[in-house]
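Please decode residue identities from the backbone states below.
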């Protein structure tokens, strides 16, 4: 019986509930506390720590989930397969059941077989199921053969690739490191009428044999390529692609024909110039719009790094495939309503963010279409000029770096045209760029090699949340990138203390300044930085000598710290105000907090108008006026997640976190220093708002005395303007309006005078032509005119004379601008750019243009007269 995708999903959950599994929600598409993955790529991701170490707080030994997954890079990368197969996706849903030290191989295999074949559940024909096992996993082989009674010819052992241990397709690994183990896979035979061979080493299963379920026996932890250790307990991790099993239950041979995709592919076909529903371009767009929508729903926006870069690649690939099938207008955002209506039970996830998703897609696509049109024309011209069927990595990088054409897009186009790409050269260029970027970063005041400090096991204890001065001991000194026992007068270096009140730059807040001293020496701290577990005080010894193990007095610049704290607390108020006024789609993308100003980057798809700027300022200042106590609490990460915290929980945090709250208005995770009360901020003023990348805005603001000083400066400027206009502050707007009106009137008069002057010049020049082989030719020199005026004269002369060659020269500041205009009938014999280049050849000039109009500049005026005579002969010989 045909089952909908939602029905298949619910049957899976119900089956394992009956087997005493706890139904848990899937985790975020962006992994929590796992720096090794950009996106969740399997159901096991959220349970990684439970596999690696015993977690007494986790009370379940049997779990079942439906997990949103994304595979676009790293070890599990399906990006390049999408569109070229009917079964691969970037975004997909994985059905998974898990055992943590409970059942193992026998039960896991029996459960899978029962769900797939029993009449109560999916009732698939047993003879259509094929099995693969890891070659060394005799236990799994015996279970399939002797307990499940699968025929031997349908159980295939899969070995390691190139005899390298643990490289088999049936030895599963979450990533390059982490939990791993042998696996057994179940394949479904869709029929001999389809192409494909039974699963096995290096065989093409085609569309006939489809892998539907992977059962992994987690027994090991991969440290690196050489080291694998046993886990403290054996567990089971299974994964079955919902889209694949739904296609089997709906009796179709492509995932893109199931109920989830059909409305979407129908709409894409309707938008396109094709009627081929199985076309690979349709598949790519359908997959990528779904992936993009779910990524954006996790508050990711397109950018050039990390999660945002993956999103940008997916969106841009979808746009290009749209172009391939004739969709030239912006279209991705128009697919979102149909997508939401077709995904069944998950529609609410996207519905909440629909406006945000559509606006971000619209903005990204409109920007990329310009890049795409320009870049593809340029790429095509470069390909035509290739002397061989190989394109250099340097050219690919230049198209990206100079014209914004994505490298993966260029590579994909070259692949379609059977042009070989020099990947090694691309890698070399990218490494060089990374090294160059790294070399351009340096500490303020002191040039320090971070590795000198971070490669040593030294640590500091920060005690500066409530303390500005403390006695401490110098544990390490670094001078000239070397550890030393002492620092002398006028030397630059880093002091590391046993404990310190100095806050090291972190989380956008700059490091503290201050003084470290004793009776023997005085060290000025310019900046404070974190080096692994150590806090480095960067600065200069201005007198005496300081040594390792010296007891010193460490005191921060409290005035600077107070200003920083005011700006940091104001940043939290700004963040909450933005979300309150503009919407919950606002998420922090970065911040920079100093003693002079604060900078806050956030996700938003359009500029903020002045009315909303004023609303935001008013809301922040209202909270400042309420003089609210700013509280901090230390709690476990799990406890923090249960609170209404505005935070990026997919960032890496420790097991315990610091939660900062300003009543219920702002509750965030924050390790920085803050004012005691909101009243300490004094005043808040936004000084700029702008876009810094696609979908990311930046606000800069000031507080306290600096904000007040800024207002006084603006008032003084206004007063100065009023004095210049000989009016009062209150009348400035009206006075400027009158000036602008008068100015427009004068501009119109001047424009009429200029038009008349040009007409007079055109009339005179039209009578002064010479004939070269019956072609009317005008050569005339001006002084101190502008190029725009000369081009207008050329256009009018062309219209009046109909067929002519015009060479106008403007001499100004011992240089000359030459502009050449040629009517279309003559340009078939002599082009303006060729004529210009001939004229410039002996004049040390530069220029270029089109067949009908060209412009150049020369500095050598001595031979200009002679070359203008010679050019007449050249024209004559070329007509």
């Amino acid at each position: 019986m045909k089952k909908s995708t939602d029905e298949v999903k619910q049957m899976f959950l119900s089956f394992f509930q009956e087997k005493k599994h706890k139904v848990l929600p899937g985790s975020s598409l962006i992994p929590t506390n796992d720096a090794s993955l950009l996106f969740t790529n399997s159901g096991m991701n959220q349970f990684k720590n439970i596999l690696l170490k015993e977690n007494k707080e986790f009370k379940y030994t049997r779990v079942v989930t439906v997990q949103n997954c994304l595979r676009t890079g790293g070890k599990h990368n399906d990006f390049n397969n999408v569109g070229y197969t009917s079964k691969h996706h970037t975004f997909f849903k994985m059905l998974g059941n898990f055992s943590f030290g409970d059942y193992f191989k026998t039960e896991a295999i029996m459960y899978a077989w029962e769900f797939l074949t029993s009449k109560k559940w999916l009732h698939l024909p047993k003879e259509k199921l094929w099995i693969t096992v890891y070659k060394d996993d005799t236990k799994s082989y015996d279970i399939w053969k002797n307990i499940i009674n699968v025929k031997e010819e349908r159980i295939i052992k899969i070995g390691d690739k190139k005899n390298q241990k643990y490289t088999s397709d049936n030895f599963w690994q979450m990533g390059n490191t982490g939990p791993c183990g042998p696996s057994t896979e179940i394949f479904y035979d869709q029929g001999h009428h389809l192409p494909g061979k039974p699963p096995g080493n290096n065989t093409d299963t085609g569309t006939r044999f489809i892998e539907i379920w992977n059962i992994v026996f987690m027994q090991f932890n991969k440290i690196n390529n050489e080291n694998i250790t046993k886990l403290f307990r054996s567990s089971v991790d299974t994964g079955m692609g919902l889209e694949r099993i739904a296609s089997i239950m709906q009796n179709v041979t492509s995932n893109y024909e199931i109920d989830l995709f059909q409305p979407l592919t129908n709409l894409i076909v309707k938008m396109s110039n094709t009627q081929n529903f199985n076309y690979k371009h349709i598949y790519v767009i359908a997959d990528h719009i779904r992936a993009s929508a779910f990524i954006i729903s996790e508050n990711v926006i397109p950018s050039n790094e990390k999660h945002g870069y993956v999103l940008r690649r997916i969106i841009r690939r979808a746009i290009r495939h749209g172009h391939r099938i004739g969709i030239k207008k912006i279209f991705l955002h128009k697919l979102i309503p149909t997508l939401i209506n077709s995904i069944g039970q998950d529609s609410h996830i996207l519905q909440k963010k629909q406006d945000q998703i559509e606006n971000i897609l619209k903005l990204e696509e409109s920007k990329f279409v310009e890049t795409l049109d320009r870049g593809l024309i340029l790429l095509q011209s470069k390909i035509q000029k290739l002397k061989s069927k190989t394109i250099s990595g340097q050219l690919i990088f230049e198209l990206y770096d100079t014209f914004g054409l994505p490298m993966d897009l260029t590579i994909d186009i070259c692949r379609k045209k059977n042009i070989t790409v020099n990947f090694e050269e691309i890698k070399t260029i990218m490494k060089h760029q990374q090294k160059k970027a790294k070399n351009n970063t340096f500490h303020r005041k002191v040039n320090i090699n971070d590795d000198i400090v971070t490669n040593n096991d030294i640590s500091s204890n920060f005690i500066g949340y409530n303390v500005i001065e403390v006695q401490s001991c110098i544990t390490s000194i670094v001078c000239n990138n070397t550890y030393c026992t002492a620092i002398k007068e006028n030397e630059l270096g880093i002091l590391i203390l046993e404990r310190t009140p100095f806050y090291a730059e972190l989380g956008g807040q700059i490091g503290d300044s201050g003084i470290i001293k004793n009776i023997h020496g005085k060290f000025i701290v310019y900046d404070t930085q974190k080096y692994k577990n150590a806090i480095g005080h960067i600065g200069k010894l201005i007198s005496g000598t300081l040594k390792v193990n010296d007891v010193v007095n460490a005191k921060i610049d409290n005035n600077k710290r107070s200003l920083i704290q005011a700006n940091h607390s104001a940043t939290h108020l700004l963040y909450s105000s933005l979300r309150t006024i503009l919407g919950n789609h606002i998420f922090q993308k970065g911040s920079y907090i100093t003693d002079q100003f604060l900078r806050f980057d956030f996700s938003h798809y359009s500029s903020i108008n002045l009315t909303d700027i004023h609303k935001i300022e008013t809301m922040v200042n209202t909270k400042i006026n309420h003089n609210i106590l700013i509280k901090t609490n230390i709690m476990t990460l799990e406890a923090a997640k249960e609170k209404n915290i505005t935070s990026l929980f997919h960032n890496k945090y420790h097991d315990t976190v610091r939660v900062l709250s300003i009543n219920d208005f702002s509750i965030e995770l924050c390790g920085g220093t803050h004012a005691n009360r909101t009243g300490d901020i004094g005043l808040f003023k936004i000084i700029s708002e702008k876009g810094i990348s696609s979908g990311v805005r930046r606000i800069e603001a000031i507080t306290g005395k600096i904000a007040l000083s800024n207002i006084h400066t603006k008032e003084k400027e206004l007063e100065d303007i009023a004095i210049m206009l000989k009016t009062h502050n209150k009348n400035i707007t009206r006075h400027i309006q009158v000036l602008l009106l008068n100015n427009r009137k004068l501009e119109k008069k001047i424009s009429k005078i200029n038009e008349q002057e040009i007409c007079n010049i055109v009339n005179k020049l039209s009578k002064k032509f010479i004939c070269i082989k019956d072609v009317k030719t005008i050569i005339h020199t001006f002084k101190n005119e502008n190029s725009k005026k000369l081009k207008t004269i050329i256009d009018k002369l062309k219209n009046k004379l109909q067929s002519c060659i015009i060479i106008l020269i403007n001499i100004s500041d011992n240089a000359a601008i030459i502009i050449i205009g040629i009517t279309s009938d003559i340009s078939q014999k002599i082009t303006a750019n060729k004529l210009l280049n001939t004229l410039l050849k002996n004049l040390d000039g530069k220029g270029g243009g089109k067949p009908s109009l060209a412009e150049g500049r020369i500095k050598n005026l001595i031979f200009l007269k002679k070359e203008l005579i010679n050019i007449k002969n050249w024209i004559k010989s070329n007509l």
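Observation: The chain is about 35% helix and 25% strand.
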